[in-house]
Design brief:
The protein is mostly helical. It has 8 helices and 4 strands; from the N terminus they run αββαααββαααα.
Length: 209
């Protein structure tokens, strides 16, 4: 599942290049299909083209967007960044209505809805408020596992690998202060030693999101 930060940043890029639909339905056909801000959240979060219902059926569109957890997370982040509060539908905040109406409706005392630049600015502010902790198991600029800082470096009872036996990538890590040990009976609990995070570590990470 993509992070909310990533979805928001990608939304800003899409709006900057393709513009924003502010009329009926969630999308309208044209030389390039124009999409409502919440429709853009959906296609970015789900990494797919706009479904046909976005052009014809608002109720079905709402159902699709509401079923996408990463899209709703991005929409809620934008809602939280606005100066107004969302209305409630059936006793729960309606974040889709809040964000869609904000992007398409002139605010009180104005004759035009927020400009594209203002919409993008709000989305980027929302993105900046999201955590950017890297997913465990990915590697840093030195190619070292972000989970354990190396490959099995959380082992404690092994002997240190001599520098001359290290791979070029590990030598870079050594120069940055990492130390590497031969695997023993205490493997790293988060990394399998090949930059692949364990299932337990993934579950623990996702529980923090």
């Amino acid at each position: 599942m993509p992070s909310t930060h990533r979805v928001l940043r990608r939304m800003a890029t899409v709006i900057n290049t393709q513009g924003l639909h502010r009329g009926e339905q969630f999308a309208v056909h044209g030389p390039t299909d124009d999409l409502d801000i919440c429709a853009i959240a959906y296609i970015v979060a789900e990494d797919q083209p706009a479904p046909a219902v976005f052009f014809t059926d608002e109720c079905a569109s709402l159902d699709l967007i509401e079923a996408s957890a990463p899209a709703i997370a991005a929409i809620r982040a934008i809602s939280d960044a606005l100066d107004t509060e969302p209305c409630e539908t059936n006793g729960v905040p309606d974040y889709i209505e809040h964000v869609s109406n904000w992007a398409a409706t002139p605010p009180i005392g104005a004759t035009q809805p927020p400009s594209t630049s203002e919409v993008i600015g709000c989305i980027l502010r929302a993105a900046d408020n999201q955590p950017t902790i890297p997913r465990p198991g990915f590697t840093d600029a030195w190619g070292l596992c972000l989970t354990c800082g190396g490959h099995g470096t959380l082992t404690t009872d092994g002997e240190e690998i001599p520098y001359e036996e290290l791979s070029p990538r590990r030598k870079q890590g050594y120069d940055q202060g990492h130390r590497f040990h031969r695997n023993t009976n205490k493997p790293c609990p988060d990394c399998d030693g090949q930059d692949r995070v364990t299932d337990a570590a993934i579950s623990a990470h996702e529980a923090t999101l």
